[in-house]
Amino acid sequence: TSITSAKIQVNGVHLHYQQTGEGNHAVLLLPGMLGSGQTDFGPQLKSMNKKLFTIVAWDPRGYGQSIPPSRDFPPDFFERDAKDAVDLMQALKFKKFSLLGWSDGGITALIAAAKYPTLIHKLVVWGANASVTQEDVRIYNGIRDVSKWSEKVKKPLEEMYGHKYFAKTCEAWVDGISHFAEKSDGNICQELLPDIKCPTFIIHGEKDPLVPRAHAEYIHKHIKGSR
């Protein structure tokens, strides 16, 4: 089946999304920092079972084709993304849906599953974290300068954004996420994890250079019945 690409107005912004499949099980794919449906989920849009699933991949505000507005990082940017994501799916007339989130999209998915439990069917997150430590801030500052990134990772993002927007937004992201470390416990959404009631599957890359494994273990420990 073909992939539809469209925009829909949600919470005062025009959000871009891609949709494919005709299955009863609706799934929203949530990309990571600077990511979009196309850059982060090309293989899933192409290869997930179109008979079982209806698949939606979105570009959060300020990312991908959901520009304008330009991306910013107020203290509640994860909550804002979670509300945008859920409201997008409701605008598309999905009553209940599952979330597949990676990296920042994983954090967004955790918050959405906790805050909108009646709407979320199942949850899969990978490369996610519920807090930010001083060590994390050190790691984030290592990617602040995009000219030091590998060509492979940098190229699709530079093609999508142009160098200036890409570089500026990456710096703004590092500043935005580092603010969480200034709180005593570095909390992003730790207190919300016990509110997640849907079946939850946590995946983590052993060699993830940006998110140490302890984050995945913390999330697993605090979401009852998660695997």
TrEMBL record:
<dbReference type="InterPro" id="IPR000073">
    <property type="entry name" value="AB_hydrolase_1"/>
</dbReference>
<protein>
    <submittedName>
        <fullName>BPHL hydrolase</fullName>
    </submittedName>
</protein>
<dbReference type="GO" id="GO:0017171">
    <property type="term" value="F:serine hydrolase activity"/>
</dbReference>
<dbReference type="InterPro" id="IPR029058">
    <property type="entry name" value="AB_hydrolase_fold"/>
</dbReference>
<feature type="domain" description="AB hydrolase-1">
    <location>
        <begin position="26"/>
        <end position="139"/>
    </location>
</feature>
<keyword id="KW-0378">Hydrolase</keyword>
<dbReference type="Pfam" id="PF00561">
    <property type="entry name" value="Abhydrolase_1"/>
</dbReference>
